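Weekly structure sync, notes
Attendees: PL (lead), two postdocs, one rotation student
Agenda item 3: pending single-chain targets
PL asked that the sequence for the first pending target be pasted directly into the notes so everyone works from the same version. It is reproduced below exactly as submitted, 426 residues in total.
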Amino acid sequence: MSTETDPVILRHRDLEQIAMTALEAGRILMETGARCEVVRQGMEKAASGLGASHIHSRIGFASVSLTVTSGAQTITRMMSVGPHGVNMRLNHAVRDICRRIEAGTMTREDALAAFADRLRNTARHPKVLNALAAGIACASFGRLLGADWAAFLPVLAAASAGQAVRLLLMARGVNVFVVTAIVALVASLLAGGLALAAGSAMVAIAMSAAVLMLVPGVPALNAQTDIMQGFPTLGSARFVSVAMVLVFVTVGVALSHVALDGVAADPVAESHGVLHQALFGALAAAGFGVLFNFAPLALLWAGAAGGIALGVRTLGLEVGWPLEAASFLAAAAVALAVECLDLSLGGHQRAGSALALAGCIPMVPGSAATECIASLMALSARHPALPEATLAIAASSSLQVLFTIGAMGAGLTIVLSLLRRSDFPD
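Predicted structure, written out during the meeting:
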C-alpha cells in the first residue's frame, strides 16, 4: 500500500503538523517575554484546536517540546528557542491567534501563515524613539535614585547612546552578554564624563543610572512567577541568565570607573516627595513600555502604572515601612489597578500582566545589584581594602535585591492569582 493511502502514516503526519504549529506558537511566546504558564496554555490551545486529544508539554529556556495524541497515535516533537526578549505587541498577537485556533476558526495553514505575517509585520517603535525612550527612562531612574538635576541630561544622552549601540550590535547578532558589557561601558563612561562636565555632584549615581535599561527586570520577575506557578526549572534558568547579565553590566561599569580614574563617592542623595517619585516613576515605566514594544495607548497605561507604583512605595517608606514591604504593597496596588482597568474598559486591548510588570520596573533595585557584584569583585582582589566592610556591603545589597524583587513578584502574583483572568481574552 502506498504511503499516501496508509491511514496510520497520514495520522502521524497530521499529528506532526499539529505539534509543529503549536511549537511555533510556543517559540514566539518564549522569545517575546511570556511567562511559562502563558507558553504552556498557548501551545495547548493551538494543539487542541487543531485536533489533538491529549497534549503534554515541556518548556525549557532554550527549547520547547510537545507530545500530542489522537486516538492510539502519539508523536513528540521539539523546537529550539532563540534569544529571549520582550515584545508585547507580537506576544499578544500570537495569543490572539492561539485563541482563534482553539475556537476552530483557523486551519494549520492559516495559523502558520498568521504567525509568519505577525513576525514580519508587527509594528515596532522607530529606533530613534527606542533610544530616546531608554534615555528618558534611565534619566528618570537617576532622579528616583537621588541624582541631581545637573546629571539628568548627561544620563539621558548617555543612555540613549548606549541603547543605540545595543540595537546596532543586536542586529549584527553579537552575543547578548558581550553586548551588555559593551553598552554598560559606553553608557556609564559617557554619563560619568558628561556629568563631570556639567558640574554634577552625583557622578557615581549618574553612571549607575545610565545602564539601568540593561537590568533584566521582566526576566527577573518572570523567573519568580514561574517558580511560584510550579515551573522551577525554567525559573531557575531565567535567574541564572539574569545573574549573568548583571555580572556583565558590572564589568562594563567597573571598566568605566577605571577609565575615569576612579569616581569619588557621592554625597547623601536628596530625598524627594510622593509627586516627584510618581512623576519619574511614570516616565521610567512609559520609557520601558517603548522598549517592550507596547502599543501607543498601552504606553499611557504603563506610565500610570509606574506612577502608582512609585507613589504607593514612597508613601510606605515615608510612614516607616521597610523597602521590601513598601515594594510589596506597591506591586499589589499596580496589579489591582491593572485588573480594575480591564474590568472598566471591557474590550480594551490591554497589555495584561505585562502592563503591571512595566509599572513595577522602576522599583527594581538595579543600582543595588550592581553595587553587590562590584563589592564581590573588589573582594577578589589580591589585597582588598577593608574586606569586612566590603563584604558587609555586598551582603546587604544582595539581600536588598533578592527581598525587593521577591516582594514585588509576590505582590503581583498574589493579586493576579486571586483575581485570575484569562491570559487569552476573547
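Discussion points:
- The two ends are 46 Å apart (CA to CA).
- The first strand starts at residue 54 and ends at 59.
Action: rotation student to compare against the earlier draft before next sync.
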